[in-house]
Design goal:
By secondary structure, the chain is of the alpha+beta class. It has helices at residues 2-18, 20-28, 31-42, 48-59, 66-74, 77-88, 125-133, 137-151, 158-174, 176-186, 213-218, 226-238, 273-284, 290-299; strands at 94-96, 105-107, 112-113, 121-122, 195-200, 207-212, 243-255, 258-264, 267-269, 308-309. Helix content is 53%, strand content 15%. Helix 1 packs across helix 2, helix 2 (20-28) runs parallel beside helix 5 and helix 6 packs across helix 9. Strands 5, 6, 7, 8, 9 and 10 form a 6-stranded mixed beta sheet that branches.
Length: 310
């Protein structure tokens, strides 16, 4: 696949005397994204250095053209700025206790990690024991271990996983009110029903779509075993509005008919402010425009100490 990409770039840069108009057109139509998607999806064992070499060997010479630089920079400027923000962040990462009856949010370094699945976190031995005995983790620990292995494997290191979590949170904050409004519309029959928000990064700029839990299971999001969805569904219900399932779909991998790598990244909150706001607004009126929603939501009183993390 990388060989094919080299041939395409060679044609664009060399064919007909190296007319840069061909490259400009290709860049404007997503050449960089296509190369990265093909390389990561079809060659999971390919080292990043091979992709670096491809980009440097063929695209670096094109940087002498002023008008090409604008197109190339615009293709990844926003993500590069987020990378810088991620590297320069001064606050320590936070996590939430996965005993959803507790749901305490604290510095991740102070939380206990389950030694079995290496995924679930707890604020105390008491919470861990409670979730093991009555929260369902005893039955699901091995399954969540498999989910972790299928996402953060050797071809997708932990730093990439951490950055995806950071990126999704930033995209959530940027579109938060629109997401809440769309969720309210999706859950028109029962605003207290659990929802799944898909953050789809497979085609470049993120596309954000809400589903009901049932709708997500019935559609192509069912890339995990049914028991995993059922476990999360129970946890969302038990959290009383403090947990919402967010899914990140990335342009690499292929599983059960779903083209892409999928991460479950729950939104955790210290209060049920969002759920109560949705319920309250739904009781006032069945439909809202975005401007009306923004005005009404802006008047909502945020509880003291309300925190949202991914």
């Amino acid at each position: 696949m990388l060989l094919d990409a080299r041939q395409i770039l060679y044609f664009l840069l060399v064919h007909d005397g190296g007319d840069d108009k061909n490259l400009l057109s290709a860049l404007q139509n997503g050449l960089l994204l296509a190369i990265i998607r093909c390389a990561r999806r079809h060659l999971p064992d390919e080292t990043p250095s091979s992709l670096d070499l491809l980009l440097l060997e063929f695209l670096a010479p094109a940087t002498v053209y002023y008008h090409l630089l604008d197109v190339m920079w615009n293709a990844y400027q926003d993500r590069h700025d987020l990378k810088v923000a991620y590297e320069q962040r001064t606050t320590s990462a936070k996590g939430a206790c996965d005993n959803v009856n507790c749901n305490k949010i604290a510095l991740k370094a102070t939380l206990r990690r389950c030694s079995g699945c290496r995924t679930f976190l707890y604020c105390s031995p008491t919470c861990q024991e409670s979730d093991w005995k009555t929260g369902g983790h005893r039955e699901m620990c091995a399954m969540h271990k498999l989910v972790r292995r299928s996402t953060c494997d050797e071809s997708f290191p932990s730093r990439d996983c951490a950055f995806i979590r950071f990126l999704l949170h930033e995209d959530y904050l940027a579109a938060r009110r629109k997401i809440i409004l769309d969720t309210m519309t999706t859950l028109h029959a029962n605003p207290r029903m659990g929802s799944v928000i898909l953050f789809d990064y497979r085609d470049g700029p993120v596309s954000i779509t809400p589903y009901t839990l049932r709708g997500a299971m019935e559609k192509t999001l069912l890339v995990f075993d049914f028991d995993v969805w059922l476990d999360w569904s129970k946890r969302v219900g038990a959290s009383v509005g403090k947990v919402q399932l967010h899914i990140a779909a990335l342009p690499t991998g292929f599983r059960r008919g779903f083209e892409g790598r999928v991460f479950i990244i729950p939104l955790r909150a210290t209060t049920e402010f969002i759920t109560l706001t949705i319920v309250g607004m739904k009781e006032k009126r069945a439909e809202w425009t975005l401007s009306e929603f923004n005005e009404e939501f802006g008047r909502a009183k945020v509880p003291k100490g309300h925190i949202e993390i991914h």
